[in-house]
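[agent] plan:
  1. take the single chain provided in the ticket
  2. run structure prediction with default settings
  3. attach structure tokens to the ticket
  4. add a short note for the reviewer (M.T.)
[agent] executing step 1
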Amino acid sequence: MTVSDSNSNLASLISRIEQLEAQQDIWKKNTIWLKRCFDELKQQFNQLAELSRVESTQDKVLQLSAQLEELQQQFERSPYVIKEIDVDDDEQNNYLVEITESIKVKEDEQVSGERIVSTEEFWQRYEAGERDFKGINLAGADLTENSPSDVNLSKANLTQARLSGTNWSNENLRGANLTQADLNNTNLSSANLKEAVLDNAFLCQAQLESADLYKASLKGANLTEANLSNANLEQSNLSEADLSQADLSESKLIRANLSNANLSKAKLLKANLKGAKLEWANLEQALYTTETIFPTNFNPIEANACLIAPEAYLQEADLSGVDLIDFDLAGANLEKANLHSAKLYGTDLSQANLSGANLSNAYLDGAELSQANLNGANLSNACLEAANLIQADFSYANLSEATFSGSRGGNPADLIGANFHGANLSGVNLAYVDLTATDLSETNLQRAEFSDETNLSGANLSKTNLIKACLSGANLSGVNLTEANLCGAYLENTDLSNANLTSADLRGADLTDANLENACLEDANLAGAILDGAKLTGAMMPDGNIHE
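[agent] step 2 finished; step 3 output follows
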């Protein structure tokens, strides 16, 4: 062997050693990357919640550990140069993401793979005394026939289940999945729905009063007319939810996500929305009070929400069906407002402007309406039992079929000095009502009913329509009935002494045993009137003569 050959072999050996050292560095780097990938996999598997899956995962981790060790040994034995993996390369990072996603898919498959329990089996187990149904899969179940009691359905799968019209109050549904479930008209008051998923669920007119919905997801849920008063909705997701006409009075909406939610006509009375997200939310005619807390820099007036407070401006507001029991709206401007079927029990509307307002079918029992302006208002079929209507202005208002007193005269409204000029009171029962000094001139009292307890002393009934009105036994002494239309009216035993009936139309009226002493009947039309037993002493008759 020549010196030249020796030098060549030495150079080749040195080159081979350098290659082996380079390979070893690459193997180390690849091993580090694989170890990182392995750690990610291990972390994902360790996050699986259920015990059965954890045990299965532990086996997989052991297998991966063995495979990694074998892989490292293969690297050490390999005669080939392995390409170094670029840990910063997007393709390699995407590979890790794909592995992570595949784990999640596998986990979802395992969850969805849980055996679905039939409705029949659920009720059989319930009837057998079982109450702990944690994690049960009732997806798509029809549970509308019965209402369970004291059950634990935390983390239950109730996706697309039907529970409408049932009672689940006070039940434990924490973390349950109720996505797209039918909960219309369901009673969930005081239920535990913490962290529950109710995305796109149907909750129209559902009762959720005092329910705990902390961190619950109600994205896209339909909650129209639902009762969420005093509910805990802190940090809940209500984005894109329909909360129109829902009652959120005194609810806790701290840091709740209400972006793109529909809150039109919702009640936010005394609600706490501190830190809530209201981007693109619709608060058109939502109701709030001075005690309602809104997020910083949010202006409810600019959102067209309605402040419920004394002297509030609510002109033409749509408050139909609203519940404002015992609220103070004294002096408020409610001109032409829509209060159809509104619940206004005990509400203070004294000196309020309700001219032209729609109060048909409204509940005004015990309401304070003294000196209120109801000119031209619609109060047909409204209930005004025990309401204070002293000096209220009802001129030209429609009060047909309205109720002023309870059965047998209980809780009569106080109408002293009220102005009903030109109003429509047809078919109204005014028995037991105090109408002292009221202005009923040109009023339509056709078919109205009075009793011997109706006090009309000092009232003005001139030009009033009293056709077929029942005034039997009523006290009309000294009342002004000039040009009144009393055709076919029932006036048996009615006290009309000193009454002014000048030019009144009494055709066909029944005045049997009526007291007409000293009454003025000048130019009155008594054709066909029944005067059997009537007292006419001192009365001025239609021809101007005084009756002896």
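[agent] step 4 note for reviewer: The CA atoms of residues 102 and 108 lie 10 Å apart.
[agent] ticket updated
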